[in-house]
């Protein structure tokens, strides 16, 4: 199965977390890893560990016959020069997830595991964490891995090893993993995201649909694009979930209870009040996690126990503070308009903090849908003007503040980002009255200003904790716009 790699060079494209996880497995099967990366410091680090390296420039004129395989990090686009050259020369290109699948199938690190795969534009990490919590409650040796942070190969190499993998996969990872056949896989939802990488919504959705090729495929029926994937899913059986009364073959909600009508006639799985995070998005994620675990015969009582035990992770609709009747919520993980929509709709009156890199996603529909819940908007980041323009068109009565980074050469990137966030939080607090929610739900990626979405969330929380009672409700009507 992997014998063709023995004694051969394998090019590892990308010296990130996934790239590092490839080295020992490649050595364990007798292959020779060679590392390439666009960054000189990354190559220097790899060389310092005694690994062979090759620059991207060197590979432009390389003898590709020396490489049995290229294993790419998920962020590398198919049209990147190294990968395009490999394909042109007939060298196969796999993703790290594809390689992990074949390592597992070859039993390099023990018996083959059951893979429960979670993908979707939003809710992947929460759902994967819920799956892991349910499996723990059932006493099944498991690990949450993949895009959630722990590389799958590192999970496979654990001793003692897991029986079941709760695997979060991005569209990038699925694009590079055509052979993966999970025991069960779910597509939670599909909205505009990463369109610059995939080239369009159809290609993005097709990548997500690769989760629906195993024994059981699960789709979110409340999301039209995800629901449409059921018709072309290659899974042996496809079921759905909805936040409403389920039909036969579905999971849903009846009288405040999660109900399974897919794997039994009717089984109550949990109370809506048991779910963290609260709100429609959290309930949908819980239904998806329930479907995946019920697909491998986890009993309803363990589904309930696992969902009760699960608590939302940081920066995912996380409560930060209440100040004089105003709640401050950190949903920095809402990195696209679809995620921001769910976050805003969970609250009645919102002062919305948003902005960053929209990555080609449109915000017009989002603004139209949530406008009646907005008290004000405070915007920052490179695409703040796009969001401001959408608000001006569809919610002209909503006061808007744009906080700009400025050009203070004496401040580093981190300090400047934190200063912008502090100003944005103070501006938002100025609009807030008792009963309002100040919500960080950026609808955009963070890398234009912040190290990542966790840095953005920490920056928000720090600014919130610095507020005092006198900072609330200071904005004058008509002061902005």
**Assembly form of the protein:** single chain
Spatial separation of the terminal alpha carbons: 64 Å
Strand order of the largest sheet: 7-8-6-9-10-11-12-13-14
Mean pLDDT: 92
β-strand number: 20
Helical proportion, percent range: 25-40%
Rg, alpha carbons: 23 Å
Give an account of the 3D structure.
With 481 residues, the protein is an alpha/beta fold. The chain has 18 helices and 20 strands. The strands form 3 sheets. The protein has a 9-stranded mixed sheet. A 6-stranded mixed sheet has the order 15-16-20-17-18-19, with helices on both faces. β10, α11 and β11 form a beta-alpha-beta unit. α6 crosses α13.
Task: Record the SSE blueprint.
Elements: E1 9-13, H1 17-28, E2 32-36, H2 40-48, E3 52-53, H3 56-60, E4 67-72, H4 81-88, E5 93-95, H5 96-105, E6 114-119, H6 124-137, E7 142-146, H7 152-156, E8 164-168, H8 171-175, E9 184-187, H9 195-198, H10 201-208, E10 216-220, H11 224-228, E11 237-241, E12 250-254, E13 257-260, E14 267-271, H12 280-294, H13 300-309, E15 318-323, E16 326-330, H14 337-345, E17 350-354, H15 364-370, E18 374-379, H16 384-394, E19 400-402, H17 413-431, E20 437-440, H18 453-465
Parallel strand pairs: 1-2, 1-4, 2-3, 4-5, 6-8, 6-9, 7-8, 9-10, 10-11, 11-12, 16-20, 17-18, 17-20, 18-19
Antiparallel strand pairs: 12-13, 13-14, 15-16
Helix pairs in contact: 6-12, 6-13, 17-18
What's the quick description here?
The protein is α/β, with parallel strands linked by helices. 35% of the residues lie in helices and 20% in strands. The protein has 18 helices and 20 strands.
């Amino acid at each position: 199965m992997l014998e063709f790699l023995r004694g051969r060079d394998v090019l590892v494209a990308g010296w990130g977390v996934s790239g590092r996880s490839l080295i020992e497995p490649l050595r364990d099967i007798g292959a020779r890893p060679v590392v390439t990366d666009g960054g000189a410091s990354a190559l220097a680090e790899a060389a310092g560990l005694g690994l062979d390296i090759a620059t991207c420039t060197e590979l432009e004129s390389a003898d590709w016959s020396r490489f049995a395989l290229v294993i790419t990090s998920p962020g590398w686009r198919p049209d990147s020069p190294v990968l395009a050259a490999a394909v042109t020369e007939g060298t196969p290109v796999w993703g790290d997830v594809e390689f992990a699948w074949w390592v597992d199938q070859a039993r390099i690190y023990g018996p083959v595991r059951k893979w429960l795969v979670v993908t979707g534009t939003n809710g992947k990490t929460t759902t994967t964490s819920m799956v892991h919590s349910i499996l723990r409650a059932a006493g099944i040796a498991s690990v949450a891995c993949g895009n959630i942070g722990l590389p799958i190969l590192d999970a496979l190499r654990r001793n003692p090893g897991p029986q079941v993998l709760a695997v979060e996969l991005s569209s990038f990872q699925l694009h590079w993993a055509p052979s993966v056949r999970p025991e069960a896989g779910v597509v939670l939802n599909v909205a505009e995201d990463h369109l610059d990488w995939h080239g369009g919504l159809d290609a993005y959705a097709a990548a997500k649909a690769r989760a629906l090729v195993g024994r059981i495929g699960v789709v979110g029926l409340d999301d039209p694009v995800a629901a449409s994937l059921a018709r072309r899913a290659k899974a042996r059986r496809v079921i759905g979930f909805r936040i409403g009364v389920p039909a036969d073959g579905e999971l849903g909600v009846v009288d405040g209870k999660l109900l399974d009508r897919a794997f039994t006639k009717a089984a109550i799985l949990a109370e809506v009040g048991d779910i963290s995070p609260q709100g429609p998005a959290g309930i949908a994620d819980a239904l998806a996690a329930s479907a995946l675990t019920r697909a491998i015969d986890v009993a309803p009582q363990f589904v309930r126990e696992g969902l009760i035990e699960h608590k939302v992770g940081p920066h995912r609709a996380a409560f930060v503070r209440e100040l004089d009747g105003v709640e401050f919520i950190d949903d920095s993980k809402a990195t696209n308009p679809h995620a921001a929509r769910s976050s805003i709709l969970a609250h009645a009156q919102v002062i919305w903090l948003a902005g960053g890199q929209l990555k080609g996603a449109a915000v017009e529909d989002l603004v139209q849908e949530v406008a009646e819940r907005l008290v004000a908007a405070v915007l920052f980041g490179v695409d703040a003007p796009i969001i401001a323009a959408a608000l001006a068109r569809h919610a002209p009565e909503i006061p808007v503040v744009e906080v700009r980074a400025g050009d203070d050469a004496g401040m580093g990137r981190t300090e400047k980002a934190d200063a912008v966030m502090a100003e944005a939080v103070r501006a938002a607090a100025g609009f807030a009255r008792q009963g309002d929610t100040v919500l960080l739900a950026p609808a955009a990626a963070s890398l234009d200003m912040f190290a990542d979405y966790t840095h953005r969330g920490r920056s928000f929380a720090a600014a919130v904790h610095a507020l005092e009672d006198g900072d609330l409700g200071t904005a004058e009507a008509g002061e902005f716009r």
